[in-house]
Amino acid sequence: MTTVLVASASVHTTAAACDHLGPRLASDDAVVVLGVSEPGLDDRDVGDAGNVARTRLVEPAIETVVEAGDPAAVILTVARERDADAVVVGATRGDPDAAGEPPGSTVQALLATTDRPVTVLPSPAP
Q1: CA–CA separation, 69 vs 7, rounded Å?
Q2: Is residue 30 part of a domain?
Q3: What is the mean pLDDT of residues 41-53?
Q4: Residues 83, 77: contact at Cβ < 8 Å?
Q5: Domain range spanning residue 24?
Q6: How many CB atoms lie within 10 A of CB 47?
Q7: Which of 20, 59, 106, 113 supports an S-S bond with 71, CB 3.0-4.6 Å?
Q8: Within a domain: residue 112?
Q9: Could you give the C-alpha distances from 90 to 15, 43, 66, in angstroms and in order?
Q10: Number of structural domains in the chain
Q11: Within 13 Å, how many C-alpha atoms sit on residue 28's CB side?
């Protein structure tokens, strides 16, 4: 059994992660969809991300977790707590209006500190 942590505050990033993972997952695998809520930012998509995963991924078990705080720190903590075998993230914040140049600061911090494999999904075309 493989556990994959999909860290996403965007339905678009979650959909891309599911499309990437779908053919790679077995029925006994597990996907943890982590939405990180940040103060002062619109987080409407955070709660919807789990619904996207449940719709797009039929076979593996889906767990949804919503946490508040610094995204990189929360991702690292939840990956450790859930003993995730791999982490999937978007290159930048899911909202194109809020995103900077890829890779974003969360991705940079995550890659610099994690000991787990990380898949960074490409940014959507404008």
Answers
A1: 13
A2: yes
A3: 74
A4: no
A5: 3-121
A6: 14
A7: 106
A8: yes
A9: 11, 16, 17
A10: 1
A11: 1
Provide the token pair at 80.
């450790």
Q: How is residue 15 written in tokens?
A: 């959909």
pTM of this structure: 0.88
Is residue 123's pLDDT more than 90? Answer: no
DSSP string of 57-85, one letter each residue:
--SSEEEEEEEES-HHHHHHHHHHHTT-S
Give the per-residue pLDDT at 93: 65
Q: Which residues pair with 36 in a beta bridge?
A: 67
The Cα–Cα gap between 103 and 61 comes to: 29
**100 assigned to some structural domain:** yes
Give, rounded to a whole angstrom, the gap between the first and last alpha carbons of the chain: 37
CATH of the domain at 69: 3.40.50.620
- Spatial separation of the C-alpha atoms in residues 38 and 43, rounded to whole Å: 8
CA angle 30, 31, 36 (to 5 degrees): 145
Average confidence (pLDDT) over 93-97: 55
On whether residue 40 sits in a domain, the answer given is: yes
